Amino acid sequence: MTRTGDSGVSITTRIDAATAGLRMRRLRQSDWSRRLVRETSLTADDLIWPIFVREGGGAPEPVPSMPEVFRLSVEGCVEAARRARDLGIPVVALFPYTDADKRDERGSEAFNEGNLVCRASRAIKAAVPEVGILCDVALDPYTSHGHDGIMEGDRILNDETVEALCRQAVVQAEAGCDIIGPSDMMDGRVACIRQALDEVGHRDTLIMSYAAKYASAFYGPFRDAVGSGGMLKGDKRTYQMDYGNSDEAVREAAQDIAEGADMIMVKPGMPYLDIVSRLSREFGVPTFAYQTSGEYAMIMAAAGNGWLDGERAMIESLTAFKRAGASGILSYFSPTIAARMPRR
Ligand SMILES: NCC(=O)CCC(=O)O
Ligand SMILES: [Mg+2]
C-alpha cells in the first residue's frame, strides 16, 4: 500500500529521500539482529556483591529497608562467597553491622584484628580463596557518632583520620582482604594507605578508591543495614562531594590515581552516570560504580508494588553502568543478576 501526503508524493519516497534509505529500525526488527549489534552486555564478571556481616550464628536477618537483603553470620558470609564463586561473581564486599556497645568516639573497633570484617575475611579466604574480598576503609561502622572520621567538636579531622585509616587498612590486609576501598573522602588517604600497606609487605593489596563519593540521600537503607542510621549527627557534606559538581570529580580522581589507586569508584551510581562516563573516558583507569542501597530500594519497592518489572529494571540499570563506561558495578542485585547472566 502506498500512502500519499498532501502533495501527492508517496510518504515512502519522502522518507527514503530524507534518510538516504537509512532505516534504523531494520537492525531492531528481530531478537537475533538486536543481539547481533548490541554494543554493551553485562556478565557476572562485571559484578561486585556487597554483603552485610553480623555477630552470632543462626538464620540470615532481613534488612527491612532492603527487601531480600540480609545480615549474615560469619558462616553465612562463607556460604555467600561460595555462591559468588559458583555464580562467577569475582568479588564480595564486606560491611559489618556493629552494635552500639562496640562503637566509640574514635572507632577503635576498626583496628581490632578480631573484628567482624576481619573474621569474615579470614573465614572466606580459608574456605573460598578464589573469590576476591573488598573491605571498606572508613570509621563510620565503628563510631558512636556515625561519621567516617575522628571528630573534634563538630569538625571531622582529616589527618588524624588518615592515620587511623592506615591502621584499619593494614589490619584488614592482614586478615586476607584483597582490595582496600577507602570510602571516607579524607584528603591524602590513598597515598598514606599505599605506603602503610607496602611497609608491612602488602604490596599486592589493591586499592579501589571511592574517588568521587557524593553526599547523598541514596545511602539511607545502607545506614540501617550497618546500624549507623540513628547515630549520625549532622551530615557528611564537609567531606563527601556536593552533588552539583562534576569538574571536582575529575580533580578527585586525578589525585587518587596519582596517589596510587589501582581502580576508582563513583558513588552513588544511577544519578551519577555522567560522572562514571567522564572519569572512565578521561583516565582510562578501571572505573566502578556503586549502585547504592537507596537505588536498590527504589527498584525493589516499585517492583514490590507492581509498578514496574523489577527483573527488567535491574538488568537495564546495570547494563546502563557498562554503557556509561564502568568496568564493573557494586550492586545488591549481583547474585540475582549473575544467576541469569551468561559467563564470559
Ligand atoms: N561505603 C559503603 C556505602 O556507604 C554504601 C552505601 C549504600 O549502599 O547506600
Ligand atoms: Mg579525595
TrEMBL record:
UniProt: Mg(2+) binding residues: 252
Annotated GO biological process: protoporphyrinogen IX biosynthetic process
Pfam families: ALAD
Keyword Lyase: yes
Signal peptide as annotated in the record: none
Stored Gene3D superfamilies: Aldolase class I (3.20.20.70)
Gene Ontology annotations for the cellular component aspect, listed alphabetically: cytosol
Coiled coil: none
GO terms assigned for molecular function: porphobilinogen synthase activity; zinc ion binding
Pathway: Porphyrin-containing compound metabolism; protoporphyrin-IX biosynthesis; coproporphyrinogen-III from 5-aminolevulinate: step 1/4
InterPro entries in the record: ALAD, ALAD_AS, Aldolase_TIM
PANTHER family, alphabetized: DELTA-AMINOLEVULINIC ACID DEHYDRATASE (PTHR11458:SF0)
Family per similarity comment: Belongs to the ALAD family.
NCBIfam families, sorted: PRK09283.1
Quaternary data: Homooctamer.
Protein's recorded name: Delta-aminolevulinic acid dehydratase
Origin species: Aurantimonas manganoxydans (strain ATCC BAA-1229 / DSM 21871 / SI85-9A1)
